[in-house]
Amino acid sequence: MILPSEFMKDFNIENITERKDNWEIILHEKEDRIPKKLEGKQAVKDGYCNPIELQSFPIKGKAFYIKLYRRRWKEPGSQESYENTYDLHLEGMKATKEFGAFLKGSFGLTAAEFSERRRNLMH
After folding, report:
1. How far from the centroid of its chain's Cα atoms is residue 10's Cα?
2. More exposed terminus of the chain, fewer Cβ within 10 Å: N or C?
3. Which among 91, 71, 69, 67 has a CA at the least distance from the CA of 81?
């Protein structure tokens, strides 16, 4: 209900954490999402890429962050790794598409500017 449905197609929820001033949901890419460059080849997992951190609509007065972990893949014995890319946020914004469009359209703000203003109002 709180995550964009497109996220759930390719990611599983690993953890949900409530903190004093925010919520964080950690998502890991599903194990069967092998990159197209490796289709038809033997592929093995090669860890995770750096996480993508996006902000979404606040929940219960707290900031809401989504941390996405994409898997890295490689062919056995190879040093070159591959990963999938996803179109999950507006270019130049660290926010979900829906939240980014809302902030830009309603206030002309980026997610970072919104967070700063929210922090100033809360303190």
Report:
1. 11
2. N
3. 71
Structure tokens at 31: 């194990």
Distance separating alpha carbons of residues 68 and 27, to the nearest angstrom: 5
CA of residue 106 relative to chain centroid, distance: 23
pLDDT in tens, 13-42: 999 999 999 999 999 999 999 999 998 899
Phi then psi for residue 19, to 5 deg, are -115, 180
Residue 63: enclosing H or E segment and its boundaries? strand 62-69
Report domain extents, the chain.
5-89
pTM over 0.85: no
- Ranges in the chain, pLDDT < 70: 1, 118, 121-123
